[in-house]
Design a protein that fits this description.
The chain has 164 residues and is mainly beta. 10% of the residues lie in helices and 30% in strands. Strands 1, 4, 7, 8 and 9 form a 5-stranded mixed sheet that branches. A 4-stranded antiparallel sheet has the order 3-2-5-6, with no helix packed on it. Strand 2 and strand 3 form a beta hairpin.
């Protein structure tokens, strides 16, 4: 049986993000004892429904800050953020950028909070989406003490992404 060789930079688009990620924790935007702290967790899935073990997820929001997290071998990522306030008629949300192998450019989406039912219903971006399925991919789910936001790059249940 032949040995399995790993792809090299000349064989794939990447991402090989581990070379560029810093050693400091860039996914903890607030301390654990901050009363505003929300744990956001999720998994990045490819078009076949398999976890992507080498993706990178970035989040940001006005007054909340910016964070970055690489996925682990099971495609999981996690952030500790302060939940942003509603602003300019938009429901509280995080902007989310996903970098992954096979993507020539990152993809952009939003994560809305599940406990903001009224604000989400009035949000102009969510309202502009043509169907409930598309809107549903942008609203995280409560998962115990965390908020879960899985990212599906293609296929069934694909996350709604926006043009950059």
């Amino acid at each position: 049986m032949a040995a399995r060789l790993e792809p090299t930079p000349s064989q794939t688009v990447g991402p090989f993000f581990s070379f560029g990620l810093t050693t400091r924790a860039a996914n903890e935007l607030v301390s654990a004892d901050d009363a505003r702290a929300v744990e956001v967790v999720g998994t990045v899935f490819d078009g076949s429904g398999r976890p992507v073990p080498d993706a990178m997820v970035e989040v940001w929001a006005q007054e909340v800050g910016w964070g970055r997290c690489g996925t682990d071998v099971d495609g999981r990522y996690g952030f500790r953020v302060a939940k942003p306030a509603a602003a300019d008629g938009q429901a509280p949300h995080l902007d989310v950028l996903v970098f992954a192998r096979g993507l020539l450019k990152p993809v952009l989406t939003r994560m809305y909070f599940p406990d903001e039912v009224d604000a989400n219903a009035a949000d102009p971006v969510l309202a502009a989406l043509a169907d409930d399925d598309g809107r549903g991919t942008l609203v995280a789910t409560a998962d115990g003490d965390t908020v879960r936001f899985d990212l599906r790059l293609q296929g069934d249940g694909q996350t709604t992404f926006f043009a950059l």
